[in-house]
UniProtKB/TrEMBL annotation, chain A:
Species name: Canna indica (Indian-shot)
Record carries keyword Magnesium: no
Biological process per Gene Ontology, one example term: regulation of transcription by RNA polymerase II
InterPro entries linked: C1-like_sf, Ssl1-like, TFIIH_C1-like_dom, TFIIH_SSL1/p44, VWF_A, vWFA_dom_sf, Znf_C2H2_type, Znf_RING/FYVE/PHD
Protein name in UniProt: General transcription factor IIH subunit 2
Phylogenetic lineage: Eukaryota, Viridiplantae, Streptophyta, Embryophyta, Tracheophyta
From TrEMBL, chain B:
Segments traversing the membrane: 15-37, 44-63, 156-176
Function: Component of the general transcription and DNA repair factor IIH (TFIIH) core complex, which is involved in general and transcription-coupled nucleotide excision repair (NER) of damaged DNA and, when complexed to CAK, in RNA transcription by RNA polymerase II. In NER, TFIIH acts by opening DNA around the lesion to allow the excision of the damaged oligonucleotide and its replacement by a new DNA fragment. In transcription, TFIIH has an essential role in transcription initiation.
Swiss-Prot/TrEMBL keywords: DNA damage, DNA repair, Membrane, Metal-binding, Nucleus, Transcription, Transcription regulation, Transmembrane, Transmembrane helix, Zinc, Zinc-finger
Record protein name field: General transcription and DNA repair factor IIH subunit TFB4
MF-aspect GO terms: zinc ion binding
Renumbered residue ranges of the record's region Disordered: 316-340
Source organism: Canna indica (Indian-shot)
Protein localization: Nucleus
Any one GO biological process: regulation of DNA-templated transcription
UniProt keyword Membrane present: yes
Family: Belongs to the TFB4 family.
Amino acid sequence: EEEEEDDGMEAWERAYADERSWENLQEDESGLLRPIDTKTLVHAQYRRRLLAASRIQKGLIRYLYLVIDLSRAASETDYRPSRMVAVAKCAEAFIREFFDQNPLSHVGLVTIKDGISHRLTEIGGSPESQIKALMGKLECSGDASLQNALELIHGYLSQIPSYGHREVLILYSALNTCDPGDIMETIKKCKKAKIRCSVIGLSAEIFICKHVCEETGGSYTVALDESHFKELLLEHAPPPPAIAEYAAANLIKMGFPQRGAEGVIAICSCHKDVKIGGGYTCPRCKARVCELPTECRICGLTLVSSPHLARSYHHLFPVTPFNEVSSVFKLSQKLAQTCFGCQQSLVSIGTKFAPHVSCPKCNQRFCLDCDIYIHESLHNCPGCESQR
Amino acid sequence: MNSVSTPSKLYSGNFTYISSSPFLYFLPPLMGLLILWQSDDVSLIVVLLDVNPFFWASSAASVGDSTSPHHPTAILSFSKLLNHVIPFLNSLLLLNQLNQVVLVATGVNSCSYIYDSGDSEGESAGSVPAVCSEILRRLEEFVDKDRLLGKGPDKVVAAGVSSLLSGSLSLALCYIQRVFRSKARHPQPRILCLQSSPDGPEQYVAVMNSIFSAQRSMVPIDSCVMGVQHSAFLQQASYITGGVYLKPQHLDGLFQYLSAVFATDLQSRSFLQLPKPAGVDFRASCFCHKKTIDMGYVCSVCLSIFCKHHKKCSTCGSEFSQAPSDPNATPDRKRKTSEV
């Protein structure tokens, strides 16, 4: 009995309050209600995203500061349980996804509270320390100040190496900004320092945020609800198009350490503790580190393993977008009737083909779900890989 | 019937307790346990069988020679291999009624699905001899088709040629995604690679993409290498995805290796001592000489690896502005004093 009543609400009440079941309905041509066909909708959305991002150079080594707004406006409860908590949860997912897609990049956290911005964590390459600091204590009060945040970050980002791409992502809940000086000057400074600022608003569109993003070449989006906010946030995880003058091309010296054998005893340089087995040895100074990628604390060499670099190769060799195949064609013995990837039948009711896609290079046919999986996660076309 | 008999197995004996009211409170969690029990050890195994005719033909020729039977790497002929693999596939199906096995053949010029035990349309519904004959028939068709694809004026025939591992890995992952989409309670998928050909360096990026996608979907990739040398790709695959890598020493006992190491489901693996990776080499190879390096230079634009400092990147053409960075200069960045 206890499981059915949550927050003092019955399950049928929750369906209206939390799940908003009326949003899953849509009217068809004759005015009858029917559930939204999510599959073709998702596929159409994905195709728009895919075709928008054509083959352009991307900034792969990113130094990103994530700014969390902890002003009074973040305690609003239009996001459950409050904006601040929802933002923190999505930020955690974003940080993990960010390091998954950009293993050589660094993230730092900055908060805005009482009109002052404060650096929560230094810019670093390990997701765990960032997430721990984020989930520390979340309390909000006071005003938000965009200028103070930008000034602070401008100071920090001017210290990073010239080959890195400097980015700021602001998660802004407030509807105004209380600044001590002229924010336009700060924006000009950031533009000169080649910092790309993007903002995700939680309340409404604000002119100054739009101006910052336009001036620095970032993107400004406003979230409609929690799931939309998460979607918008995760869109910033893959590397953005690189503006060529922004980062100098450099050859970065990196080390590729070997994994230690089981049973080797050494003192690790990160925890200053004796460890048995595992771990990696810096090739330059022979210090032991526990995990990769990292920077050797003794000699400063960036240590990576080849899979970390390989994680970014799919940005350089993307899969060509597949062409949609019109479902007008009647069933023909010559054409394949199953998806090449997952062997699902492509024949829908009767003799017609369901909507599907085909690869322009190998001419194999794939179902819509395989299309999304191939382009968003796998980054290999099975048809092209299965031929010489 | 099942729901009544299982509680009696857990509580050995007394049926009379079922009717008494306190027991009824235990029933829902027991149902939960039963359901958990059932779906924990149900597996979907996608087996990628390497059908590289160049490798198997050369091994058949050497088996006919006076190879000593005590040679540690006695090589198998393809028909003997199938004598080990097909009973292994049948044994996987016998381990659990709901287990599903899919066989994908990795050829030299193509990859294709050979057998799917969940496909209820074929004549081979369940019976062991029918499964064997269907697999053999379709493998023969595949090998013939693969051979025909290889004939042509532009195709190169070489002895050390690799098979299309990246193709079959991609097919396996697409199939597993379909299984994830289909039912709420689905079997736990894993991939087993029976590989004999050497690694093809041109497939590196594609194989790594498959490995990362498998890691994200939490699908372990097990590997059993029957070739002459170790496979660096499969070592990395098994290490990153949490699978098992094995290179059997005595190939004529292959069935024992397969059933002892690779037959267990993921849930039960925590109770077994499985072969541990003996040292995976994660070093990169430089793009200019293809030799493995300890320390190298990485282009910040395209992440190509070089062993020496160059003026221009050969992959993306970016010119490098700075002189080689002084190793003593970088630690300054780390010494962060109270600059805040």
